[in-house]
Amino acid sequence: MSLFTPGSPQVAAARAGAAALDRVAPALTLPAGENPARSRRWSSRVGPVAVLPLADLLALLAAAAIAGHYGWRAALYAGAVLVVLAVSGLHRVRICLRVFDQAGRIITAAALPALLVLPWTSAADALRLVAWSAGLLMVGRVSLSAALRAAHRRGLLTDPTLVVGAGDLGRHVARLLHEHPELGLSPRGFLDSRPAAGELSLPVLGQLTDLREVVARHHIRRVIVCFPGDRDQEMVPVLRASRRMGADICVVPRLHELGAVVPRACLDEVWGIPLIPLRQGRAVMGTFLKRTFDVITAAVLLTLTAPLLLGLAVAGRLQLRRPALFRQVRVVGSGRLAEIAKLRTLGVPRGSERCWDPDTCWSAPTERCTPLGSFLRTTHLDELPQLVNVLRGEMSLVGPRPERPYFARRFGQEVPGYHDRNRMPAGLTGWAQVHGQNGDTSIHDRARLDNQYIENWSFWLDLMILARTVAATVASAAGSLIGASRQAAAGRPADRPPFKELILANSRLSFADSEPAFDNSSFSNSSHGGSR
Description:
Elements lengths: L8 H16 L13 H29 L4 H17 L15 H9 L2 H4 L5 H31 L5 E6 L3 H12 L5 E7 L19 H8 L3 E4 L6 H10 L6 E4 L16 E3 L2 E5 L6 H37 L4 E9 L2 E8 L27 H9 L7 H6 L3 E3 L6 H10 L12 E3 L13 H13 L3 H32 L42
Parallel strand pairs: 1-2, 1-3, 3-4, 9-10
Antiparallel strand pairs: 4-6, 5-6, 7-8
């Protein structure tokens, strides 16, 4: 029994378009020059993506001309507005083409760049420019949306769509897509490991683990996740691994019938069913910005801290009678290893400690730690030589902390999502570290926080983490010096300051109540793993 409304001309057009593409499917194995669907797929995707920024540009140039702004000022303003629109996600091709949900963000995007031209124009002229720009942007987008809806109803510029989940909600979404061709989505089938019983209007193309293969085979451009029979723990790694497969992924939120605080402009929808778009990974511009900031900041920090590093290295060399730098191979990314350096903090091994392997033993023998070494560990100043790794491109300023290969393999087998944190280069500090996850703390918590950072990365988040790291380092150094001075005043031995007893609420770097990472005797409380 079909779930479609019979006799509807829109449904008939949608069926005809789907049947036409299904007949072309065998040609997908032909050489590129003989594939008759290639130009249609290219135009259906590239067309709206390119037309939207172009329409915005024309609207901005017209607004500048009407407001009396020409030359470099008009170009500067228009370019800045386009950048703000792109960064705000307003150039993403949405399923729901309703423009007025985004009116507030469009007005903000038109207003902020006016500050750039304000020194060369009056406030009244700048306000007139903003008003014309916001108005024409809205008019242009409304006109473009109307044109796209008309094209969708005729079967043009549509996106082949895959519905993940063949339950009641997935079937309902598939029916809505057929009934409303103006949405521009042409459903190809379901993907579900355990589809619900009953007749389906579309074929089941595979299981969840077949997502990448199905997307490539059927040239899917949209994926809508609708509560499949798979568990969430099984879906997360599959969806993460499919971020760069070229399809937009949207997820129907749980309890979607209830209103959420999330702004409507940040969501999408299919005929009243809200969708949360997933990121497709860091954009090229974001990667370039992060790398540029890393190089400039690392070079400046190395220059400013060179005298401090030299002094600490000399002091450590004289006190420990060993090389000032301790080098160790760490996992710094997916399939990437690098040798990182730290200021040495441990003395010469004694007796049975000579068989202690820093690459396979979790905790360091803290009894070998000198007062200077304890200070370096507490303040994390021993990590400063890794700025060289940042300059080389082996690490970043912010990212998941690098781990030794032995433990990276072990954690990857025992901790869900641990390997996913290697999607981003390792960092000097990270989201887990500013939450107090240093040393012998929960590896599960670290992996979850690191993956949260990667999923929600932004340049602003990096700046916030660096600011919190600097504040925590200053607080740790101040606490260590105060503790040492109090011990000296009380006549207590100064060679073993109780740094672990310092609980710094603001920096959240306390080790007093840390949670063991594993129930294993080799995992003892320690502020850092590995020998120094």
